[in-house]
Amino acid sequence: MDFKLTEEQELIKKNMREFCEKYVDPIAAEIDENSRHPAEVFQKLAEGDWMGIPIPAQYGGSGADYLTHICAVEELARSCASTGFTVSIHVGIASMLILLFGNEEQKKTFLVPLAKGEKLGAFVLTEPGAGTDVMAATTTAVLDGDHYVINGTKTFTSNGPTGDTYLVFAWTDKAAGRKGMSAFIVPRGTPGMTAGNHFAKMGLRSSQTSEMLFKDCRVPKANLLGKEGNGLAMAMTGFDHGRTGIAAQAVGIIQAALEESVRYAKERVQFGQPIARHQAIAWMIADMATDLNAARFLTYHAAWLKDQGQPFSKEASMAKLFASEKAMHHTIKAVQIQGGYGYCKGAKVERLMRDAKITEIYEGTSEAQRMVISGNVLR
Ligand SMILES: Cc1cc2nc3c(=O)[nH]c(=O)nc-3n(C[C@H](O)[C@H](O)[C@H](O)COP(=O)(O)OP(=O)(O)OC[C@H]3O[C@@H](n4cnc5c(N)ncnc54)[C@H](O)[C@@H]3O)c2cc1C
After folding, report:
1. What stretches in the chain show pLDDT beneath 50?
2. What angle do helix axes 348-359 and 313-337 make, rounded to 10 degrees?
3. pLDDT tens-digit map of 239-257
4. Pick the catalytic residue: 211, 267, 363, 367?
5. 112, 42: one domain
6. How far is the CA of 371 from the centre of ligand 1 (A)?
7. Ligand 1 atom closest to residue 366's alpha carbon, by position in its atom list
8. Residue 49, by phi and psi: left (phi above 0), alpha (psi -120 to 50) or beta?
9. Domain for residue 224, yes or no?
10. Where is the domain boundary, 101, 120, 139?
11. With 85 labelled, which of 46, 51, 107, 251 sits at a CA distance of 20 to 30 A?
12. 361 C-beta closer than 6 A to ligand 1
């Protein structure tokens, strides 16, 4: 058993930290305030080969392992949860699904530009009436000659307004139940696909989230990902990867909360001594540091299992569940440690608290993670 990252993983983590200090930290508060997609940061991420870490070099990526990508997401989220998440869903779901299930032509056409960071990916599954209950989806894809015609309304699509390559899930045979949904690669600009209502959010504000509207959207048969009817199974595989990324996002948030708490507790003096000397505050910091370690190990373990080619569905859910709930808990404590100042705009902990909440909701709520975990344990 080895609890250490490899030298290469450590180096990439360190390089990503330096990248964040240079390009992300200086704008993190501003892009949150203005709900702005930082295109200039994504340009730099592309130039630095950060947008396709676990994608093989032949498809435009860096050919590193998944754990390395997870370390990069953690560092990004430590500076800006939105930026970390955007990379996570772009790599962990959009790009990974094309890598795992796409044919050679699809990989050349769609995966290479994603892995190089020239294009941004999106995962289009959720609908207004189908959140946790994916089977309640109503979007359809009907074969018409050599095209599928997609009709329906999707919602909460991350990178909806800013994406280039959309993985869209629709029924090709609703009667076939779990084997009736298919996935399609739909490039931006395809007639009939438009971004609808753009959501204003509590946190994760620089990540762009919108509805996606499909009206007689004709997609070439060649853009069917994998086999017809395999959409739901592919979405679940995407979640295994993506949830590990959300866990890393939560770990980055806890790390930042801890750093902010330690800094402030040493500086702020009340009753004649730094508040860190008051045991109530010191113990909050002790719990934060302990849960950070536990969350990080769960997350790295899930990624490590993926890299060993082992099943990691249960472990990805465990990592996401634990890390996200601890991120929420400890960012509330981090605000508490900073008292009234922590409650005000401009305090990093205020942003961390708002950003932490979403990690308990998307890519499956905490309740959905408990369903996955209990389903595995009680099998
Ligand atoms: C910022 C943001 C970004 C997102 N990005 C994407 C994206 O890129 N692509 C995409 O497809 N989706 C995306 N989503 C959608 C997200 O995955 C869903 O919001 C999430 O799965 C929950 O669905 P819902 O919001 O409809 O809640 P619901 O499913 O309506 O759930 C409401 C509540 O009921 C609980 N609940 C539901 N069913 C059960 C049950 N059987 N047992 C116990 N409790 C239950 C839930 O846990 C939750 O607490 C995003 C959402 C947000 C907010």
Report:
1. none
2. 150
3. 999 999 999 999 999 999 9
4. 363
5. yes
6. 13
7. 47
8. left
9. yes
10. 120
11. 107
12. yes
pLDDT for the residue numbered 2: 86
Active site residue 363: yes
Examine the domain organization and report whether 50 and 115 are in the same domain.
Answer: yes
- Pair of tokens at residue 301: 């373990």
- Give me the pLDDT at residue 1, please: 83
Report pLDDT for 331: 99
Choose the residue to mutate in 365, 369, 372 for probing ligand 1, maximizing ligand atoms within 8 Å of C-beta: 365
Atom of ligand 1 nearest to the CA of 93: 8
Ligand 1 mean position to 71 CA, how many Å? 26
Nearest by Cα to 121 from 155, 145, 97, 142: 97
Which atom of ligand 1 is found nearest the CA of 169? 11
Here the tokens at position 12 are 């990439």
Assess whether 97 and 57 both reside in one domain.
yes
Residue with the nearest Cα to atom 30 of ligand 1?
131
Residue 198 within any structural domain of the chain? yes
Asked whether residue 1 is assigned to any structural domain, the reply reads no
**Is 90:45 a contact under the CB 8 Å cutoff?**
no
- What's the domain count of the chain? 3
Per-residue pLDDT at 152: 98
* Tokens 């330690």 belong to residue: 262
Q: In whole angstroms, what is the distance from residue 349 CA to residue 206 CA? A: 17
For residue 130, the 8-state DSSP code is B
The verdict on 251 and 372 lying in the same domain is: yes
Measured distance CA(376)–CA(69) in Å, rounded: 26
